[in-house]
Protein backbone atom coordinates (compact mmCIF):
# COMPACT_ATOMS: atom_id res chain seq x y z
CA UNK A 1 0.00 0.00 0.00
CA UNK A 2 2.82 2.38 0.94
CA UNK A 3 4.68 1.53 -2.30
CA UNK A 4 1.54 2.28 -4.33
CA UNK A 5 1.13 5.67 -2.61
CA UNK A 6 4.78 6.52 -3.27
CA UNK A 7 4.42 5.53 -6.91
CA UNK A 8 1.33 7.71 -7.36
CA UNK A 9 3.10 10.62 -5.68
CA UNK A 10 6.12 10.24 -7.96
CA UNK A 11 3.88 10.17 -11.04
CA UNK A 12 2.02 13.27 -9.86
CA UNK A 13 5.30 15.11 -9.24
CA UNK A 14 6.61 14.16 -12.68
CA UNK A 15 3.39 15.35 -14.32
CA UNK A 16 3.51 18.64 -12.41
CA UNK A 17 7.12 19.41 -13.31
CA UNK A 18 6.91 18.28 -16.92
CA UNK A 19 6.31 20.70 -19.77
CA UNK A 20 2.75 21.07 -21.05
CA UNK A 21 1.77 18.59 -23.77
CA UNK A 22 1.28 21.38 -26.31
CA UNK A 23 4.80 22.67 -25.65
CA UNK A 24 6.35 19.20 -25.96
CA UNK A 25 4.53 18.59 -29.24
CA UNK A 26 5.37 21.93 -30.86
CA UNK A 27 8.02 21.79 -33.59
CA UNK A 28 11.10 23.97 -33.53
CA UNK A 29 11.85 26.90 -35.81
CA UNK A 30 14.46 24.82 -37.63
CA UNK A 31 11.69 22.36 -38.55
CA UNK A 32 9.49 25.08 -40.07
CA UNK A 33 11.84 27.34 -42.04
CA UNK A 34 14.70 27.42 -44.50
CA UNK A 35 17.54 29.87 -43.97
CA UNK A 36 18.42 32.14 -46.85
CA UNK A 37 21.64 31.01 -48.51
CA UNK A 38 21.82 27.68 -46.67
CA UNK A 39 21.03 25.19 -49.43
CA UNK A 40 22.45 22.25 -51.32
CA UNK A 41 23.52 22.11 -54.97
CA UNK A 42 22.73 19.33 -57.44
CA UNK A 43 25.56 17.38 -59.06
CA UNK A 44 25.47 15.03 -62.05
CA UNK A 45 27.99 12.88 -63.87
CA UNK A 46 28.30 10.17 -66.53
CA UNK A 47 30.21 7.03 -65.64
CA UNK A 48 30.69 3.30 -66.08
CA UNK A 49 29.84 0.42 -63.80
CA UNK A 50 32.00 -2.69 -64.13
CA UNK A 51 32.00 -6.13 -62.53
CA UNK A 52 28.45 -7.08 -63.51
CA UNK A 53 27.66 -10.78 -63.90
CA UNK A 54 26.66 -10.61 -67.56
CA UNK A 55 23.86 -8.15 -66.85
CA UNK A 56 25.50 -5.08 -68.42
CA UNK A 57 24.73 -3.19 -71.62
CA UNK A 58 24.69 -4.93 -74.95
CA UNK A 59 27.20 -3.02 -77.06
CA UNK A 60 25.02 -3.21 -80.16
CA UNK A 61 22.13 -1.40 -78.46
CA UNK A 62 24.34 0.91 -76.36
CA UNK A 63 27.27 2.10 -78.53
CA UNK A 64 28.03 4.94 -76.10
CA UNK A 65 29.07 2.33 -73.53
CA UNK A 66 31.69 0.90 -75.90
CA UNK A 67 33.02 4.37 -76.70
CA UNK A 68 33.28 5.37 -73.04
CA UNK A 69 34.97 2.07 -72.15
CA UNK A 70 37.48 2.48 -74.98
CA UNK A 71 38.34 6.01 -73.81
CA UNK A 72 38.76 4.78 -70.24
CA UNK A 73 41.09 1.95 -71.24
CA UNK A 74 43.18 4.27 -73.42
CA UNK A 75 43.61 6.68 -70.48
CA UNK A 76 44.84 3.69 -68.47
CA UNK A 77 47.39 2.81 -71.17
CA UNK A 78 45.46 0.02 -72.93
CA UNK A 79 45.15 0.49 -76.69
CA UNK A 80 41.90 -1.00 -78.00
CA UNK A 81 41.74 0.85 -81.33
CA UNK A 82 40.40 -1.42 -84.04
CA UNK A 83 39.73 -4.21 -81.57
CA UNK A 84 36.31 -5.89 -81.55
CA UNK A 85 35.51 -6.42 -77.89
CA UNK A 86 32.02 -7.16 -76.63
CA UNK A 87 32.03 -7.11 -72.83
CA UNK A 88 28.70 -7.70 -71.11
CA UNK A 89 29.73 -6.82 -67.59
CA UNK A 90 29.85 -3.04 -68.18
CA UNK A 91 26.97 -0.56 -67.98
CA UNK A 92 26.72 3.16 -68.66
CA UNK A 93 25.11 5.09 -65.81
CA UNK A 94 24.08 8.58 -64.74
CA UNK A 95 25.34 9.50 -61.27
CA UNK A 96 23.49 12.12 -59.22
CA UNK A 97 24.17 13.66 -55.83
CA UNK A 98 23.57 16.76 -53.74
CA UNK A 99 26.45 18.91 -52.54
CA UNK A 100 25.40 19.74 -48.96
CA UNK A 101 25.53 23.24 -47.56
CA UNK A 102 28.85 24.08 -45.87
CA UNK A 103 30.50 20.97 -47.40
CA UNK A 104 34.27 21.19 -47.22
CA UNK A 105 36.91 19.68 -49.49
CA UNK A 106 37.57 16.09 -48.48
CA UNK A 107 34.12 15.44 -46.99
CA UNK A 108 31.81 12.85 -48.54
CA UNK A 109 28.22 12.71 -49.76
CA UNK A 110 25.88 9.95 -50.98
CA UNK A 111 25.31 9.28 -54.67
CA UNK A 112 22.60 7.57 -56.70
CA UNK A 113 23.50 5.48 -59.75
CA UNK A 114 20.98 4.78 -62.55
CA UNK A 115 21.50 2.79 -65.75
CA UNK A 116 20.81 4.55 -69.05
CA UNK A 117 21.40 1.61 -71.40
CA UNK A 118 19.75 -1.80 -71.62
CA UNK A 119 21.54 -3.30 -68.60
CA UNK A 120 19.43 -5.82 -66.70
CA UNK A 121 20.90 -5.21 -63.26
CA UNK A 122 23.59 -3.21 -61.45
CA UNK A 123 23.80 -5.75 -58.61
CA UNK A 124 27.40 -6.42 -57.64
CA UNK A 125 28.85 -3.65 -59.83
CA UNK A 126 31.47 -1.05 -59.03
CA UNK A 127 31.33 2.55 -60.21
CA UNK A 128 34.57 3.73 -61.81
CA UNK A 129 35.89 7.20 -60.93
CA UNK A 130 33.25 9.65 -62.20
CA UNK A 131 33.62 13.45 -62.14
CA UNK A 132 30.44 15.23 -61.02
CA UNK A 133 29.52 18.65 -62.36
CA UNK A 134 27.23 21.37 -61.05
CA UNK A 135 25.04 23.68 -63.14
CA UNK A 136 28.01 25.97 -63.83
CA UNK A 137 29.91 23.12 -65.55
CA UNK A 138 32.63 22.94 -62.90
CA UNK A 139 33.66 19.67 -61.21
CA UNK A 140 32.85 19.70 -57.49
CA UNK A 141 33.09 16.01 -56.56
CA UNK A 142 34.37 12.63 -57.75
CA UNK A 143 32.34 9.46 -57.20
CA UNK A 144 33.58 5.87 -57.03
CA UNK A 145 32.80 2.68 -55.15
CA UNK A 146 30.68 -0.51 -54.97
CA UNK A 147 26.98 -0.11 -55.69
CA UNK A 148 24.22 -1.17 -53.32
CA UNK A 149 21.35 -2.29 -55.57
CA UNK A 150 18.30 -3.43 -53.63
CA UNK A 151 16.26 -4.82 -56.52
CA UNK A 152 16.50 -8.24 -58.08
CA UNK A 153 15.11 -9.72 -61.30
CA UNK A 154 14.79 -13.35 -62.43
CA UNK A 155 13.41 -14.63 -65.72
CA UNK A 156 12.76 -18.03 -67.23
CA UNK A 157 11.07 -19.43 -70.31
CA UNK A 158 7.60 -19.31 -68.80
CA UNK A 159 7.74 -16.73 -66.04
CA UNK A 160 9.55 -13.63 -64.84
CA UNK A 161 9.75 -12.01 -61.42
CA UNK A 162 11.13 -8.63 -60.37
CA UNK A 163 11.39 -7.08 -56.92
CA UNK A 164 12.35 -3.43 -56.70
CA UNK A 165 14.41 -1.73 -59.41
CA UNK A 166 17.70 -3.60 -60.05
CA UNK A 167 18.91 -0.98 -62.56
CA UNK A 168 19.26 1.70 -59.89
CA UNK A 169 21.37 1.75 -56.75
CA UNK A 170 23.25 3.97 -54.34
CA UNK A 171 26.72 4.41 -52.86
CA UNK A 172 26.64 5.78 -49.30
CA UNK A 173 29.43 8.31 -49.00
CA UNK A 174 30.46 7.45 -52.55
CA UNK A 175 31.46 10.97 -53.66
CA UNK A 176 34.35 12.96 -52.24
CA UNK A 177 34.07 16.75 -52.36
CA UNK A 178 36.91 18.28 -54.37
CA UNK A 179 35.80 21.92 -54.57
CA UNK A 180 33.90 24.14 -52.13
CA UNK A 181 31.08 26.54 -52.93
CA UNK A 182 32.32 30.14 -52.58
CA UNK A 183 29.86 31.12 -49.85
CA UNK A 184 30.82 32.68 -46.50
CA UNK A 185 27.83 32.56 -44.16
CA UNK A 186 29.54 34.60 -41.45
CA UNK A 187 29.86 37.67 -43.72
CA UNK A 188 26.16 38.00 -44.48
CA UNK A 189 24.70 41.39 -43.56
CA UNK A 190 21.07 40.27 -43.36
CA UNK A 191 19.19 37.04 -42.87
CA UNK A 192 15.74 35.90 -43.90
CA UNK A 193 13.80 32.87 -42.76
CA UNK A 194 11.61 31.30 -45.46
CA UNK A 195 8.65 29.29 -44.15
CA UNK A 196 8.21 25.90 -45.80
CA UNK A 197 4.43 26.32 -45.44
CA UNK A 198 3.69 30.07 -45.79
CA UNK A 199 1.16 31.25 -43.23
CA UNK A 200 0.64 34.70 -41.71
CA UNK A 201 -0.17 33.37 -38.24
CA UNK A 202 2.87 31.10 -38.13
CA UNK A 203 5.16 33.90 -39.35
CA UNK A 204 3.81 36.23 -36.63
CA UNK A 205 4.37 33.57 -33.96
CA UNK A 206 7.96 33.11 -35.13
CA UNK A 207 8.54 36.87 -34.96
CA UNK A 208 7.15 37.13 -31.42
CA UNK A 209 9.05 34.05 -30.21
CA UNK A 210 12.40 35.36 -31.49
CA UNK A 211 11.89 38.86 -30.13
CA UNK A 212 10.75 37.49 -26.79
CA UNK A 213 13.73 35.14 -26.48
CA UNK A 214 16.29 37.84 -27.35
CA UNK A 215 14.57 40.66 -25.49
CA UNK A 216 14.81 43.10 -28.41
CA UNK A 217 13.08 43.65 -31.78
CA UNK A 218 15.31 41.49 -33.96
CA UNK A 219 12.74 39.68 -36.12
CA UNK A 220 10.22 41.32 -38.40
CA UNK A 221 7.57 39.50 -40.44
CA UNK A 222 7.69 40.56 -44.09
CA UNK A 223 4.87 38.42 -45.46
CA UNK A 224 3.31 35.00 -44.98
CA UNK A 225 6.51 33.22 -46.02
CA UNK A 226 9.33 35.49 -44.81
CA UNK A 227 10.70 36.64 -41.45
CA UNK A 228 13.68 39.03 -41.66
CA UNK A 229 16.35 39.15 -38.94
CA UNK A 230 18.23 42.36 -38.04
CA UNK A 231 21.82 41.32 -37.24
CA UNK A 232 22.78 44.76 -35.91
CA UNK A 233 19.89 44.80 -33.45
CA UNK A 234 20.73 41.27 -32.34
CA UNK A 235 24.39 42.09 -31.71
CA UNK A 236 25.33 38.58 -32.85
CA UNK A 237 26.88 37.03 -35.89
CA UNK A 238 24.70 35.07 -38.34
CA UNK A 239 25.79 31.65 -37.07
CA UNK A 240 25.41 32.58 -33.39
CA UNK A 241 21.99 34.14 -34.00
CA UNK A 242 20.66 31.07 -35.79
CA UNK A 243 22.01 28.84 -33.01
CA UNK A 244 20.13 30.96 -30.44
CA UNK A 245 16.73 30.86 -32.16
CA UNK A 246 16.53 27.61 -34.16
CA UNK A 247 15.43 25.49 -31.18
CA UNK A 248 12.56 27.77 -30.12
CA UNK A 249 9.27 25.85 -30.08
CA UNK A 250 6.52 27.22 -32.34
CA UNK A 251 2.95 26.00 -32.71
CA UNK A 252 2.32 26.32 -36.48
CA UNK A 253 -1.06 27.30 -37.84
CA UNK A 254 -2.06 25.21 -40.84
CA UNK A 255 -4.96 25.29 -43.25
CA UNK A 256 -7.76 22.78 -42.97
CA UNK A 257 -7.04 20.25 -45.72
CA UNK A 258 -8.45 16.99 -47.00
CA UNK A 259 -5.96 15.05 -49.14
CA UNK A 260 -7.33 12.24 -51.29
CA UNK A 261 -5.26 9.75 -53.30
CA UNK A 262 -7.73 8.06 -55.63
CA UNK A 263 -5.20 5.48 -56.87
CA UNK A 264 -4.59 3.92 -53.47
CA UNK A 265 -7.81 5.00 -51.75
CA UNK A 266 -5.89 6.94 -49.08
CA UNK A 267 -7.66 9.75 -47.24
CA UNK A 268 -5.92 12.20 -44.88
CA UNK A 269 -8.03 14.75 -42.99
CA UNK A 270 -6.50 17.65 -41.07
CA UNK A 271 -7.46 18.27 -37.47
CA UNK A 272 -9.09 21.61 -38.33
CA UNK A 273 -11.56 20.20 -40.86
CA UNK A 274 -15.10 21.35 -40.07
CA UNK A 275 -18.41 20.28 -41.58
CA UNK A 276 -21.67 22.21 -41.42
CA UNK A 277 -25.03 20.58 -40.76
CA UNK A 278 -25.70 18.18 -43.63
CA UNK A 279 -27.52 14.90 -44.25
CA UNK A 280 -25.67 11.96 -45.86
CA UNK A 281 -27.07 8.76 -47.33
CA UNK A 282 -24.81 6.19 -48.94
CA UNK A 283 -26.35 3.71 -51.33
CA UNK A 284 -24.97 0.36 -52.42
CA UNK A 285 -26.11 -0.75 -55.87
CA UNK A 286 -24.51 -3.89 -57.34
CA UNK A 287 -25.00 -4.96 -60.97
CA UNK A 288 -23.65 -8.34 -62.04
CA UNK A 289 -23.56 -9.45 -65.68
CA UNK A 290 -22.71 -13.11 -66.32
CA UNK A 291 -22.27 -14.70 -69.73
CA UNK A 292 -23.07 -18.44 -70.04
CA UNK A 293 -23.04 -19.25 -73.77
CA UNK A 294 -24.75 -22.50 -74.81
CA UNK A 295 -23.49 -24.75 -77.61
CA UNK A 296 -26.32 -26.24 -79.74
CA UNK A 297 -25.59 -29.44 -81.71
CA UNK A 298 -27.51 -30.57 -84.83
CA UNK A 299 -29.68 -33.72 -84.74
CA UNK A 300 -27.94 -37.03 -85.36
CA UNK A 301 -27.37 -37.87 -89.08
CA UNK A 302 -28.60 -34.39 -90.02
CA UNK A 303 -26.73 -31.89 -92.08
CA UNK A 304 -25.88 -28.88 -89.99
CA UNK A 305 -23.28 -27.10 -87.94
CA UNK A 306 -22.84 -26.56 -84.24
CA UNK A 307 -23.69 -23.05 -83.17
CA UNK A 308 -23.13 -21.11 -79.95
CA UNK A 309 -26.19 -19.37 -78.57
CA UNK A 310 -25.41 -16.39 -76.29
CA UNK A 311 -27.02 -16.46 -72.88
CA UNK A 312 -26.70 -13.47 -70.55
CA UNK A 313 -27.79 -13.27 -66.93
CA UNK A 314 -28.21 -9.85 -65.29
CA UNK A 315 -28.66 -9.51 -61.54
CA UNK A 316 -29.32 -6.14 -59.89
CA UNK A 317 -29.08 -5.93 -56.13
CA UNK A 318 -29.59 -2.85 -54.01
CA UNK A 319 -28.78 -2.64 -50.33
CA UNK A 320 -31.63 -0.74 -48.68
CA UNK A 321 -30.37 -1.15 -45.13
CA UNK A 322 -28.43 2.14 -45.19
CA UNK A 323 -30.29 5.09 -43.77
CA UNK A 324 -30.05 8.83 -44.04
CA UNK A 325 -27.52 10.13 -41.52
CA UNK A 326 -27.50 13.66 -40.15
CA UNK A 327 -24.16 15.39 -39.54
CA UNK A 328 -24.44 18.13 -36.96
CA UNK A 329 -23.06 21.67 -37.19
CA UNK A 330 -19.24 22.09 -37.07
CA UNK A 331 -18.37 18.55 -36.07
CA UNK A 332 -14.77 17.64 -35.27
CA UNK A 333 -12.54 15.27 -37.18
CA UNK A 334 -13.23 12.45 -34.76
CA UNK A 335 -16.99 12.95 -35.11
CA UNK A 336 -16.69 12.91 -38.90
CA UNK A 337 -14.71 9.67 -38.92
CA UNK A 338 -17.09 8.04 -36.45
CA UNK A 339 -20.09 9.10 -38.51
CA UNK A 340 -18.68 7.75 -41.78
CA UNK A 341 -17.71 4.49 -40.12
CA UNK A 342 -21.23 4.23 -38.68
CA UNK A 343 -22.57 4.26 -42.22
CA UNK A 344 -20.50 1.16 -42.93
CA UNK A 345 -18.68 2.65 -45.92
CA UNK A 346 -15.16 1.92 -47.17
CA UNK A 347 -12.43 4.34 -48.26
CA UNK A 348 -13.65 4.51 -51.87
CA UNK A 349 -17.18 5.41 -50.76
CA UNK A 350 -15.83 7.92 -48.23
CA UNK A 351 -14.01 9.69 -51.08
CA UNK A 352 -17.28 10.06 -52.99
CA UNK A 353 -19.09 11.24 -49.85
CA UNK A 354 -16.45 13.88 -49.12
CA UNK A 355 -16.63 15.14 -52.70
CA UNK A 356 -20.39 15.41 -52.47
CA UNK A 357 -20.21 17.24 -49.12
CA UNK A 358 -17.65 19.65 -50.61
CA UNK A 359 -19.90 20.24 -53.63
CA UNK A 360 -22.78 20.98 -51.25
CA UNK A 361 -20.69 23.68 -49.56
CA UNK A 362 -20.72 21.94 -46.18
CA UNK A 363 -17.05 20.88 -46.10
CA UNK A 364 -14.96 23.83 -44.88
CA UNK A 365 -11.49 22.72 -45.92
CA UNK A 366 -9.19 22.72 -48.91
CA UNK A 367 -9.59 19.48 -50.83
CA UNK A 368 -6.52 18.15 -52.65
CA UNK A 369 -7.14 15.25 -55.02
CA UNK A 370 -4.06 13.40 -56.25
From TrEMBL:
Key words, A-Z: Bacterial flagellum, Cell projection, Cilium, Flagellum, Periplasm, Signal
Signal peptide segment: 1-25
Annotated compartments: Bacterial flagellum basal body
Pfam families assigned to the protein according to its UniProt record, in alphabetical order: FlgI
Family (UniProt): Belongs to the FlgI family.
Subunit structure: The basal body constitutes a major portion of the flagellar organelle and consists of four rings (L,P,S, and M) mounted on a central rod.
Protein's job: Assembles around the rod to form the L-ring and probably protects the motor/basal body from shearing forces during rotation.
Name of the protein: Flagellar P-ring protein
